[in-house]
């Protein structure tokens, strides 16, 4: 078992390594992008990655406090699911309504890699590969559909 400080240091080292690995990779539009903190440009719409003790995940999270706006965005994404799945080359799990660790309601579309741990450095290449491919696919998708969200 790790102390809180040790766990924080290991997580930080993983994300620094991921950021350095991804830094030379351009976005679908050819621009530089901070892959670890991807900016969608739409308030309350995030691409989130996690590397935890028992899994890694990547998600589209809709966190608008207005249920109407949040569900409208979710429905828009559902209408674009064919484009999303073509970019991802896989199906993801769709949760129209769920809660985060703070009890806030959100919509979540995600993929998860199980049986890996950020605390096992030997798992890092698998986790990085999992996150990289999906994040780049999300970027391709977002480059195509973002204008729809900007005008909604």
Ordered list of secondary-structure elements with their pairings:
Elements (H helix, E strand, L loop, with lengths): L3 H19 L22 E7 L3 E8 L4 H13 L1 H8 L4 E7 L5 E10 L9 H28 L1
Antiparallel strand pairs: 1-2, 2-4, 3-4
Helix pairs in contact: 3-4
Verbal overview:
This protein is of the alpha+beta class. It has a single domain, classed as Yope Regulator, Chain: A. Helices cover about 45% and strands about 20% of the residues. The protein is built from 4 helices and 4 strands. The chain has a 4-stranded antiparallel sheet with strand order 1-2-4-3. α3 packs antiparallel against α4. About 20% of the residues are buried. The mean pLDDT is about 95.
Counted up, domains total 1
CATH topology: Yope Regulator, Chain: A
Strand content: 15-25%
Written as H for each helix and E for each strand, in order along the chain, the element string is HEEHHEEH
Q: What is the overall number of helices? A: 4
**How would you classify the helix and strand content by structural class?**
alpha+beta
Query: Unreliable segments (pLDDT under 50, ≥5 consecutive)?
Result: none
What is the level 1 CATH name? Answer: Alpha Beta
- Using the CA coordinates, give the radius of gyration: 16 Å
- Alpha-carbon distance between the termini? 47 Å
Q: Per the principal axes of the C-alpha atoms, what is the gross shape?
A: globular
SS elements, strand count: 4
Main sheet: strands, sense, barrel: 4 strands, antiparallel
Helix content: 40-55%
Which architecture per CATH? 2-Layer Sandwich
Q: What oligomeric state do these chains adopt? A: single chain
Strand order of the largest sheet: 1-2-4-3
Mean pLDDT: 96
């Amino acid at each position: 078992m790790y102390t809180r400080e040790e766990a924080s240091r290991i997580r930080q080292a993983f994300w620094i390594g991921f950021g350095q690995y991804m830094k030379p990779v351009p976005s679908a539009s050819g621009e530089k992008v901070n892959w670890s903190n991807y900016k969608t440009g739409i308030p309350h719409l995030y691409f989130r990655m996690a590397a935890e003790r028992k899994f890694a995940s990547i998600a589209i999270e809709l966190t608008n406090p207005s249920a109407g706006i949040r569900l409208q965005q979710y429905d828009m994404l559902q209408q674009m699911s064919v484009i999303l799945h073509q970019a991802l080359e896989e199906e993801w799990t769709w949760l129209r309504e769920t809660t985060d660790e703070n009890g806030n309601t959100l919509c979540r579309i995600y993929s998860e890699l199980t049986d890996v741990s950020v605390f096992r450095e030997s798992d890092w290449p698998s986790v990085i590969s999992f996150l990289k491919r999906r994040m780049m696919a999300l970027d391709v998708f977002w480059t195509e559909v973002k204008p729809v969200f900007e005008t909604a």
